[in-house]
Amino acid sequence: MTEAAAPAGELTALGTPLRSFRFAAAGEGNKQEGGARKFIQTAQQAEEYGFDSFVVPDHLGDQIGPIAALGALTQATERIRLGTSVLANGFRNPVVLAKDLATIDVLSKGRLEVGLGAGWKQDEFAAAGIPYETPGVRLEKLDEALTILDVLLRGQECTFEGKHYQVHGVKGTPRPRQGPRPPICTGGGGPKMLRLAAKHADIISVVPVTTKHGKGLLSGITMAKTIEKVNLIREAAGDRFADIELNWAITAIVITDDREKTAEMALSAIDRGLHPDLEVDVKLSVEEILESPYVAIGTFEEIAEQIRRVRQLTSMSYVGVFPTQMDAFAPVIPLLRDE
User: Which residues form the Luciferase-like domain (predicted)?
Assistant: First the structure.
C-alpha cells in the first residue's frame, strides 16, 4: 500500500524485514514563515533536497488551510508525495473530506498520503465553537471516519450506520489515482490510539506521550519507550504488522563534532527549564539522549548511523523532520538513500 521500496533481506531486532528509508518534511505556512508563497517554496525546496514527502499540519490558528494548500502543491511540485500530518477528524465530515482527498490524489497524479487523527488542541475546538468530546468519543469518531474513508477512497459505494456517522449510499468520486486507495496514516503515543492505528493504518506515526496540556513527557523520547510502543502495535496488528510502515519525527537536530558534550548541554538546558514544551518526569542520561529516536546529534555520518540503529531496533523507517530542520537534515538523505 505504501510507497516504500521492497523490504531488504536483513531483519530488524523485532524479526521483521528492513524497509527502505523514506524521508518526510513538514510545512507550516504561517505568517511568521512568510505565508502561503513561502509555504510553496518550502515544499519545492524539500523536493529538491530529495525528501520523499511533504506533509501539512491542520490547525485553526495562524496558518494556511491544509486542503487548499495541498491542492496548490499538486501543481507546484512534480515528484514529492503530499500528505497531511495530521488532519483533525473533528473539523470535517468524512464524506466531504473523502471527496477533497480523492480530488487531490487525482490532481497530484497519485501522490497523496492521508494523515488523520482524533484532534487534540482543545483551545482550537473551543475557539471555533466545535464540540471537544472526551478522548473516548473522539476515538470512536475517528474509528468510524477511517472506516468510511477506506471505502470511499477506493471509489466504492459506502453505506454505514455508526454511532456518530450515518452514510447512505454515497459513492467515492472522483476515483483516486492510487490503487486500491491512497495510503492512510494515523498514530499517537497512547495504547488506545496505537491500537486504533494498528486496525486501520498503512503508516503509523509513533510519537512520545503528551500531557493533557500538550507537553511532551521527557520519558517518552527514550528508545525503551519507543520499542514498547512498536511492540504494542505489532501485537495489535497481528499479521498486518509486516505491511505497516512506521514513522517518527526527529524534533531536534544538532550538527556537531562532539555528540557527548552537546548531549550534556541539552540535558542541562532541560534541567534549567529552557524547553517549556517538555514536562520533565525523569532524569535521562547522556546515553539515553543520544540513543533517542527523536533527537539527532552528531556529524551527518553519525546521525545517519543513529537512524540505521533506530530502524534496526524498532523497524521504524519513515523519518520526519520539521521545516526549521530541513536544511540541517538534507545532507543526511543521500547517506541513507536506497538503504
Answer: 27-313
